[in-house]
Write a structure and sequence with these properties.
- Chain B: GO terms for molecular function: microtubule binding.
- The complex is a heterodimer of chains A (217) and B (253).
- Chain A is an alpha+beta fold.
- Helices cover 13% and strands 28% of the residues of chain A.
- Chain A is built from three helices and eleven strands.
- Chain A starts with 8 loop residues before the first strand and ends in a 24-residue tail after the last helix.
- Chain B is mainly alpha-helical and 253 residues long.
- Chain B is 69% helix and 4% strand.
- Chain B has twelve helices and four strands, in the order H-H-H-H-H-E-E-H-H-H-E-H-H-H-E-H.
- In chain B, the strands form two sheets. Chain B has a two-stranded antiparallel ribbon. In chain B, strands 3-4 form a two-stranded antiparallel sheet.
- In chain B, a hairpin with a 2-residue loop joins strand 1 and strand 2.
- In chain B, helix 4 runs antiparallel to helix 5 and helix 8 crosses helix 12.
- The chains are: A alpha+beta (217), B mainly alpha (253).
- At the A-B interface, helix 3 of A face helix 8, helix 9, helix 10, helix 11 and helix 12 of B.
Chain lengths: 217, 253
């Protein structure tokens, strides 16, 4: 799942405010814009991030203009894919405030594919927290290769109970053969580790040592 | 006065002559040396060690033999081994190489290797020398010397183990081992040694293949083939198994 990251450009969160000189207040709502400049047909399977005191998150998606509209692009609406997903059970309290989240395909209202832009809307209604955001946001493609993992090697799955029953006809002492072989292996490795690494200082050219053939380079 | 002196001198003289006698032949130093060697090498059989040591004292002329005896005083796994190798190197440094030139050159190094490997089959020694030999006139540094000597000592152990393995495989005590079995065993060993040291997964796999389970499957496969390839003597078996060891020896050239 995590091995197919989607390349996108994530902008800084923008705090939504109501521009009013008299009634300036902290709206508690931020938007993160995500675009896909280099990807031709972006499709999102999973969204992973680390929370930092965000209470709710919503994801809205803008689809590419449908070609059957002809020359006119028509109205491109933002569609809500994930509606107000609760990250913190209680916005005033600590729980869930610094958790890791992964929003998978199952939680999307529809399949996110062929989109032009995505907006992640963060909401934190509680006035208790000075700052809220999400960190380490990563988008992944959907993975069709949810096939079985490669089979485990024999030495991991071999049942030790079966091994004691191994008795070959004609070979009475498998254990001693095995231990001798392992000792031989150990000796060879020990020797290999202690090989000298120094240069012996040979000045041979093509296998012969001839003073006249020595070169400066 | 004279009377008094006489018994005194008669008593003194034997004591002094004893000490003088011992000092004349530097027996004191000799005994100190032997005791020091026994303590640092801690042989399993001190009496044999002592007798071998005194035997070897007669080989004072041949520096190579002297060096070999020192190297073989203790097992290569003990820390004292390195000190012994250093001592052996120092002894061999006194070898005259040329006019007013003393040191360890290729000839004495090769001689030492050959004498250390005297109990092994000749083909094994030849192959080993091909890998670690040095030209006659080359100067041998301590590092190269130590590495070569260590390889020989480990090979000595290896060959002894080969014999044990041969005896385990030779169930009917016929003096010959089925070539099929020998091939299977050799193959498993080579596969284990072919892996690089740093790949942890390969190491565990190699360990499994050499353990009773992996070996069981390999031997079963081999025995099922039912081909008759004849038997192998101990020497042939040793030569083949040593190939795996020699493949790990780093070539000096």
């Amino acid at each position: 799942m995590g091995d197919r990251p989607l390349h996108c450009s994530i902008k800084n969160p923008i705090l939504l405010t109501v521009e009013d000189q008299k009634n300036a207040f902290h709206s508690g709502c931020k938007v993160i814009d995500v675009t896909f400049p280099n990807v031709s047909s972006p499709e999102v399977g999973e969204i992973c991030f680390k929370n930092y005191y965000t209470a709710y998150v919503s994801i809205r998606v803008k689809f590419k203009a449908a070609p059957e509209n002809g020359a006119e692009s028509g109205e491109i609406k933002w569609k809500t894919c994930v509606r107000r997903m609760r990250l913190m059970p209680s916005p005033h309290k600590e729980s869930g405030s610094q958790d890791y989240f992964a929003i998978s395909k199952k939680q999307f209202s529809f399949d996110i594919s062929n989109i032009s832009a995505m907006r992640i809307i963060l909401q934190q209604p509680s006035p208790v927290w000075k700052e809220f955001r999400i960190e380490d946001l990563r988008l992944y493609r959907s993975s069709e290769m949810l096939s079985k993992p490669p089979p485990l090697p024999a030495w991991l799955t071999e049942d030790s109970a079966n091994s004691t029953k191994h008795k070959l006809e004609g070979i009475p002492n498998l254990e001693s053969i095995s231990s001798s072989l392992q000792e031989l292996w150990g000796l060879s490795e020990e020797m290999a580790i202690n090989q000298s690494k120094t240069e012996i200082g040979r000045y041979e050219v093509d296998g012969c040592y001839e003073v006249n053939l020595l070169a400066y380079t | 006065m004279a009377d008094k002196k006489k018994p005194n001198s008669a008593d003194d003289r034997p004591q002094e002559t004893d000490r003088q006698f011992l000092e004349r032949y530097s027996i004191g130093t000799l005994m100190k040396d032997v005791l020091g060697k026994i303590v640092s090498n801690r042989p399993k059989d001190p009496i044999t060690f002592l007798s071998d040591y005194f035997d070897s004292l007669e080989d004072q002329s041949n520096l190579v033999l002297k060096a070999r005896n020192i190297i073989e005083m203790t097992h290569h796994s003990r820390p004292v081994f390195e000190m012994n190798v250093r001592q052996a190197y120092d002894i061999m440094l006194k070898q005259k190489v040329g006019k007013r030139l003393y040191g360890v050159n290729g000839t004495s190094y090769t001689d030492l290797i050959k004498t250390l490997c005297r109990d092994m089959p000749q083909p094994v020694t030849t192959k080993l020398l091909k890998k670690i030999e040095c030209l006659d006139y080359e100067a041998i540094t301590f590092d190269v010397f130590k590495s070569g000597v260590f390889t020989c000592c480990v090979l000595q152990d290896y060959v002894k183990l080969c014999e044990m393995l041969f005896n385990s495989l030779d169930f009917q005590s016929s003096g010959k081992v089925d070539k099929i079995l020998s091939d299977v065993v050799n193959e498993q060993l080579k596969a284990a040694l072919a892996n690089t040291r740093t790949d942890a997964r390969k190491i565990v796999e190699a360990g499994y293949n050499l353990g009773p389970d992996g070996l069981f499957y390999a031997l079963e496969r081999g025995m099922r083939s039912k081909s008759q390839l004849g038997g192998q003597t101990l020497e042939q078996f040793t030569i083949e198994i040593c190939d795996a060891f020699l493949s790990k020896v780093k070539r000096l050239r």
